[in-house]
Amino acid sequence: MRCFAAPVVFVMLCLCGCGCDLDASPDGSDRLMVMTYNVQNLFDAYVTGNEYPEYTPEEGWTADAYRRRLGRVAQAITQGHAMVPDIVLLQEIEHANVLQDLLREHLSARGFQWFAATAAKDSAIQVGIISRFPITDARTHSVQGNRPVLECEIDLGSEKLVVFAVHAKSRREGVAETEGQRIATSGVISRRTDELLRKHPWRPVLVAGDFNGSADSYLREGSSYQTALVPFDVLQAEDYAKNGSLLVSGGVPPRGIWYTWWLDRTQLLLSHADGSYWYQGIWETFDQILLSPAFFDSCGLEFHSGQVGVGQHLRDEKGHPNAWNVRTEAGYSDHLPVYVVLTGR
């Protein structure tokens, strides 16, 4: 699948932004927290013709409703943590303007000053990144017929972190029927990260977002067909990687393999996590944060732990995600936020 250039909006808020070492992060911590969160449709109150119909004045969506919705998203991002996330990857935002509003009205006081977002004209929803550290470069990689991937370089002071934001094709039209489109997205990521890591083998690279596929999807589907994410130790893993799959592991990953804490039994026990998305009566781990081997080399940024959002307001009475309801303005999202905590050495 070919990769095409695509628009990206990349902005620093006009506040008092400056670079800073990880040892002097905005909250004084020597840890870095990265969060991915599918917010379930964050639209402003302006009609551009590309929004979903329920987010129009005719359907009762107003500026006041939008402001209240921003407050809920901000609450989900900062909920219950002694340490606020430093970098947040968001899916299902309308465009960069909603990120600017989110920061100006709620999160700039928590140190968020930089943001970037895709700007694909043929998509009603985009992916974006907000950061408490400077975003020094941003670009998008289009996937034909699918949502683009956002790549950002973030300056942590002591080193550069490269982050890829993903929102892969949904399963709405059938799991097997849409898997090829998810593989197209993972293939673009695979080729770009291979290129990047050939030049900088030990640069920390993180790929996160809503993959619309679990880390163990290949096994769940009976190993009957290729999936976008494939455990690195299955028989056909090498062939699948050549055809676009990302190979994943729950252990310290060798070069060319991605770590996901969803496959790490120790992390699952410590986090008490079942999944991030409740789909057809089953917990799924669609929301992934994949880490390159550089996070396990005892130098620079190192993986510490994985977490899933535990705030009670983010869950319903059954413990499932407390989905957003545009009609009643109740709930938060049909996904739970997922985190990794990294330490600086």
Topology diagram in text:
Layout (H helix, E strand, L loop, with lengths): L2 E4 L1 E5 L18 E12 L20 H16 L8 E7 L2 H12 L6 E5 L7 E6 L3 E9 L2 E10 L4 E8 L7 H25 L5 E6 L6 H4 L8 E3 L5 H6 L3 E4 L8 E2 L5 H7 L5 E3 L2 E3 L2 E5 L10 E7 L29 E6 L2
Parallel strand pairs: 3-4, 9-10, 11-12, 12-13
Antiparallel strand pairs: 1-7, 2-5, 3-18, 4-6, 5-6, 7-8, 8-9, 10-16, 14-15, 17-18
Helix pairs in contact: 1-2
Shape, principal axes of CA atoms: globular
Q: So, CATH architecture?
A: 4-Layer Sandwich
CATH topology: Deoxyribonuclease I, Chain A
The spatial strand order of the largest sheet comes to: 2-5-6-4-3-18-17
Q: Give me the number of helical elements.
A: 6
Helix content: 10-25%
Distance between the termini: 39 Å
Mean pLDDT: 91
Approximately what portion of the residues adopt beta-strand conformation? 25-35%
Overall radius of gyration: 19 Å
Description:
The protein is an alpha+beta fold and 345 residues long. The protein has a seven-stranded mixed sheet with strand order 2-5-6-4-3-18-17. Strands 1-7-8-9-10-16 form a six-stranded mixed sheet. It is globular. Residues 1-5 and 14-24 have low confidence and may be disordered. It contains six helices and 18 strands. The chain has a single domain (3-343), classed as 4-Layer Sandwich (Deoxyribonuclease I, Chain A). Helix 1 (63-78) crosses helix 2. Helix content is 20%, strand content 30%. The chain has helices spanning 63-78, 96-107, 175-199, 217-220, 237-242, 265-271; strands at 3-6, 8-12, 31-42, 87-93, 114-118, 126-131, 135-143, 146-155, 160-167, 205-210, 229-231, 246-249, 258-259, 277-279, 282-284, 287-291, 302-308, 338-343.
